[in-house]
Amino acid sequence: MSRTALIIGWFGQEALWLAPESPTPFIELTSAVTRAFPVYPPYGGLHDASVPHATVGDSAGYEELQDAERVVGAELPLSGTASAVVLLVEGPHGRWREASRFPLS
After folding, report:
1. CA 28 centroid distance within chain
2. pTM score of the predicted model
3. 60 dihedral zone (left: phi>0; alpha: psi -120 to 50; beta)
4. Residue-by-residue DSSP string for 9-35
5. 37-95: per-residue pLDDT in tens?
6. Contact 104/83 with Cβ under 8 angstroms?
7. Is 1 within 8 Å of 82 (Cβ atoms)?
């Protein structure tokens, strides 16, 4: 995928995240994967839409997350290139691990 700038966002006051400034390629990729594997919807079908993002923090208090936002925000804009799709699975104790990696061309 082409280079994209990252922006900061929130899910309520509980989760701080970074997202691509132009999410369309990621939304299209998610839609294609969902069409290919309809019995495995994103997030188990809990949400109507998928928001492309990388979580910065979600298990801290709001004030601590605000501090993190200031630190991360001082480093913006960031940019990067998506080179692979990574399948993450939740393991014991809520820890995520990489199950598979699929390179993008």
Report:
1. 14
2. 0.72
3. beta
4. EEETTTEEEEEESS-HHHHHHHHHHHH
5. 999 898 888 888 888 998 999 989 999 999 999 999 999 888 778 889 898 888 888 88
6. yes
7. yes
Q: What is the largest CA-CA distance in the chain?
A: 41
Q: How far apart are the first and last CA of the chain?
A: 8
Give 6's Cβ-side CA count (13 Å radius).
19
Got the DSSP string for the chain?
A: ---EEEEEEEETTTEEEEEESS-HHHHHHHHHHHHHSTTS-GGGG-SSS----EEEESSS-HHHHHHHHHHHHTTPSEEE---EEEEEEE-GGG-EEEEEEEE--
Distance (Å, rounded) from C-alpha 83 to C-alpha 2? 9
Contact call for residues 56 and 71 (beta carbons, < 8 A): no
Locus of tokens 């994103």: 42
How are beta strands 78-80 and 96-103 bridged, if at all? unpaired
